[in-house]
Amino acid sequence: MARQGHSEALPLRRLVRAPNKKKLTVHPAIIGSILPILLLFIWEGLSRLDVLPTYLLPAPTVIVNTIIELGADGSLWGHIGITLYRIFLGFLLGSGAALLLGSVVGFYRKAEQFFDPIIQAFRSIPSLAWVPLFILWMGIAEASKVTLIAVGVFFPVYLNVVSGILSVDRQLIEVGKMYGLSSFQLVKRIILPASLPSFLVGLRSGLGLGWMFVVAAELMGASQGLGYLLVLGQNTYSPELIIASIVLFAVLGKLTDAVLKKVESKSLHWQDRMEQR
């Protein structure tokens, strides 16, 4: 009888079981490009119908042609190159200093009491307030521009490094001590892996602020860079050049963030995260 009941239950299970259908997957880049493309078509249409004043807001095709012309005469690549150089150097200096000081503050309570109050005070200073001081100290050469970018990168990276270290579960550290791990091994095997996600988030936030600060830096008397093109477009009343520069800033910012996001994904492959759903 038990066998008969078991055999009768099998067809019922097959009826209840969900059909195994392959899901239609669409690449996230395609989904993310739908809205921008739609807005560009609307923008172009309104410009061609003279609904939008083209002397204030040129059509997307005009802006694309401006970028192509800058690329064709070779000047665009020099402007992009010097902007990327400033971003890279400022990001390297700012994140390096933040990692060093943030680690000291995170590990040692006395260091937190000594350094953190003044760092938080400096963090509240608006970015443009540093500009005249840096020009006075270092002139309008590269040093003042890179320093301003480094200041912008420093604070979000510092905050995330300190937060990541302080948020490590104390029970993990106690378990490590029970297994006889030395202080160096505790840092290497427990504290660093546990604080790495916060540090990588800080790097991405710092990079985003770095792109904001590079605009302010290149307004400091620069003769090259995408920020210089913004000023040139303003002085020559060329809205297409201004918007083309803004578009290039957006594209480069997105590409550099995508690189860091890829590094983050590779570094945290061991995590079971929501984005893996």
UniProtKB/TrEMBL annotation:
Keywords: Cell membrane, Membrane, Transmembrane, Transmembrane helix, Transport. Pfam families: BPD_transp_1. The keyword Metal-binding does not apply. It is a multi-pass membrane protein. The chain crosses the membrane at residues 24-43, 84-108, 120-140, 146-169, 190-217, 237-256. One of its GO terms (cellular component) is plasma membrane. It is found in: Cell membrane. InterPro entries: MetI-like, MetI-like_sf. CDD domains: TM_PBP2. The keyword Cell inner membrane does not apply. Residues 76-260 form the ABC transmembrane type-1 domain. Gene3D superfamilies: MetI-like. One of its GO terms (biological process) is cellular response to sulfur starvation. Coiled coil: none annotated. Belongs to the binding-protein-dependent transport system permease family. This is ABC transporter permease. It comes from Guptibacillus hwajinpoensis. The lineage of its organism: Bacteria, Bacillati, Bacillota, Bacilli, Bacillales.
